[in-house]
Amino acid sequence: MDVVPALEEPLKKVLGPATAKVMAEHLGLQTVGDLLHHYPRRYEERGRLTHLADLPMDEHVTVVAQVADARLHTFASAKAPRGKGQRLEVTITDGSGRLQLVFFGAGVHKPHKELLPGTRAMFAGKVSVFNRRLQLAHPAYELLRGDTEETVETWAGALIPIYPATAKMESWKIGKALQTVLPSAQEALDPLPDSLRAGRGLVPLPEALLKIHRPHTKADIEDARARLKWDEAFVLQTALARRRHTDAQLPAVARRPQPDGLLTAFDARLPFTLTEGQRKVSEEIFADLATEHPMHRLLQGEVGSGKTLVALRAMLAVVDAGGQAAMLAPTEVLAQQHHRSVTEMMGELAEGGMLVGADDATKVVLLTGSMGAAARRQALLDLATGEAGIVIGTHALIEDKVQFHDLGLVVVDEQHRFGVEQRDALRGKGKQPPHLLVMTATPIPRTVAMTVFGDLETSVLDQLPAGRSPIASHVVPAADKPHFLARAWERVREEVASGHQAYVVCPRIGDEEDAPKGAAKKKSPEDEAEKRPPLAVLDIAGQLAEGPLRGLRVEVLHGRMQPDDKDAVMRRFAAGEVDVLVATTVIEVGVNVPNATAMVIMDADRFGVSQLHQLRGRVGRGSAPGLCLLVTEMPEASAARQRLNAVASTLDGFELSRIDLEQRREGDVLGQAQSGTRSSLRMLAVIDDEEIIAEAREEATRIVAADPDLTDLPALRTALDALLDEEREQYLEKG
After folding, report:
1. Which residues touch 517 (CB under 8 Å, ≥6 apart)?
2. How far apart are CA 636 and CA 634, in angstroms?
3. N or C: which end of the chain has fewer CB within 10 A?
4. Residue 288 φ/ψ, nearest 5 degrees
5. What is the C-alpha to C-alpha distance for residues 228 and 224, in angstroms, rounded to an integer?
């Protein structure tokens, strides 16, 4: 019988089924190795007190503090009508602030005896607000007497590790479980090549694991972190380097534009000159298209920097070279918008096969799921025969029925909306793998691009075309200052009076079924703002048309309208026949109406930072200055308000993406879940550890070039296998 390696031993065998079940269900930890890589979030010094002043709301926290005061109250309630109800209120302090703990009913007896003033302990629970004060209700606690053998043994040294924990498994219980498995750390396989580890002065992996869980000094923690960060960065970058290496071996048709073809004719038609950035990025793309392996390029551009124009020039170059180009958009509204703007930019060059078409024209077709049967049949025929050089569409492009004559380039708009599977399916439509250009208007910090899109080369457009106007952004605190909201509607009327148009954005449509009404409870203002259903397009449009915007032409746009109706509304808005468009985030990307100068975002705290930046980019697209008002009911001290203040304070998308990332954490860098809940990065922070990631990328590229199969590095191969479980392996395969 095979002996299971120590780090692959199931926790059930080592810790018992009950503990193992909680660890698997609540922390995702299955094996001894998983637990060893569950690192402390921070450390407390036994002699020092923690910061109670900045506890996060609604999060599970562990604090080390001293009891300042404990009082037992009796009260009457439905369960104890004769005044026999008991409530224990304990105030703890750490020098920076105070926090209230509360225990009820039979749960008061033990803490009443143990939590006497002067007692020090670790407390764990979920931070909530009662009467506008922070509190922990029924927290778990562990007394820090420091005299019993077990406490001293468990919290060896003066540094107490505080682990990411849950209500079902407190930090100190995780610490005790680690005490049991820590001897297995000696058997950890070291993925770093010896030369790399020695060259950078990093400690061996078993030593790093020991020091991260049981440090004696702060220097131990630094040594361990430096080593474990390198592990994560290097193993991840090796996976991406192997991906790039494999891609470089794939065949592709080189696409070089004709000297006097469609692209030349198109450039001659442009009523403006390209920006320096557009010219430079186009050259990078053309160089890639001319090679005989597929281009994999990420084109990042600030909102309104002219990415569509750069992508169109790439598509025309491919058509010139005898191939076809497909542009994939995430929504029908956006696909129609792209089709309209591309055909307008190309003019007669987009009318191939028609009498009015230019000699070197091609056909540009639209393909979406809701097209009529006849139009759809014609579009499919044009693609199969090669009559259409350019197709713009939604997921409908991926269906089996769609056949291309010779697909040479795939342009994917708004990467974060598009599953890897869809990109993969479209790629499979070419006779050989087509070139791939991924566009995103969500600026991504360089290290994130190196990590999340590590298999793509990156181009950045950070220059706005001449004639674009600045956008002023302001937070409107509707609950604290209702007159500010009234003033916001006046500003919208002023913009319309001067011949402009406005958007009002809401998080919800409003025809959904209402959530069941719970029992009404007294809630804090924060709770009220948070728990109220998000404002809805259909409600707000009616209120505005009858109230503050009476007399203006108000229309609605949302995702559940029929595609023809959506298109008709957008056309009317673009033609200036609608003053105010009340919409959901369907207008977030690609919608281009230069005459729209104002945007009011209702419940702005319900949107993410990059989403707000995207939405704001819909105004200020002409010569008149733009105005964006972020309406919120969240209190001034809340994290949501700080986020909105950050958005209002800068128009720099790269700066905002850093703020966004710091707030959300990195998410699972390799998996599709980019939300921050599940992360393959436990120690590495992609924002702070830029240098390590860049160096790890260089080292990984060098090692993979010399030994693509990692034949000489079995431990690194094992680490890669652990990182690339099946789902992530497929994700990279298709990436």
Report:
1. none
2. 7
3. N
4. -65, -45
5. 6
Count Cα atoms within 13 angstroms, Cβ side, for 478. 18
Which pLDDT does position 499 carry in this prediction?
94
- Taking the CA atoms of 227, 233, 236 and 239 in sequence, report the sign of the dihedral they define: negative
Q: How many CB atoms lie within 10 A of CB 341?
A: 16
Work out whether the CA dihedral 659, 665, 671, 672 comes out positive or negative: negative
Residue bearing the bigger pLDDT, 465 or 526: 465
- Number of neighbours of residue 387 by Cβ within 10 angstroms: 16
Residue 332, Cβ density class (10 Å: 0-12 exposed, 13-18 middle, ≥19 buried): buried
Of the candidates 192, 36, 242, 23, the residue with the CA atom closest to the CA atom of residue 683: 36
| Mean pLDDT confidence for 593-612 | 89
Euclidean distance between CA atoms 184 and 376, whole angstroms: 62
Q: Which residue blocks in 325-444 are alpha helix, DSSP H? A: 332-346, 373-385, 420-427
Spatial distance between the Cα atoms of 128 and 111, rounded to a whole number of angstroms: 20
pLDDT at 323 over 90: yes
Beta pairing class for 626-632 and 596-601: parallel
Largest CA distance in the chain: 95
pTM of the model as a whole: 0.66
Residues 53-92 have pLDDT tens digits of: 777 776 677 788 899 999 998 876 666 566 578 889 999 9
- Tell me which range, 8-12, 138-142, 597-601, is most confidently predicted by mean pLDDT: 597-601
Q: How far apart are CA 438 and CA 297, in angstroms?
A: 6
3-class DSSP state of 634: coil
Identify the band that residue 394 occupies on the pLDDT scale cut at 50, 70 and 90. Answer: confident
Note the pLDDT tens digit of each residue in 101-124: 999 888 888 899 999 999 988 888
pLDDT at 48: 58
What φ, ψ does residue 92 adopt, rounded to 5°? Answer: -115, 155
The DSSP element (H or E) to which 94 belongs, if any, is: none
Whole-angstrom CA distances from 493 to 302, 357, 537, 547, 705 are 29, 44, 19, 12, 62
pLDDT score of 501: 94
Q: Is-contact 410 434, C-beta < 8 A? A: yes
Burial environment of residue 284 by CB neighbours within 10 A (0 to 12, 13 to 18, 19 or more): middle
Mean pLDDT of the chain: 81
CA-to-CA distance for 346 and 364, rounded, in angstroms? Answer: 9
Q: Cα separation of 607 and 585, whole Å?
A: 10
Helix and strand numbers (H, E) in the chain are 26, 21
Which single residue is written with the structure tokens 């070197």? 360
437 φ/ψ angles, rounded to the nearest 5 degrees: -125, 120
392-428 residues labelled b (16+ CB within 10 A) or e (exposed):
bbbbbbbeeebebbbbbbbbbbbbebbeeebbebbbe
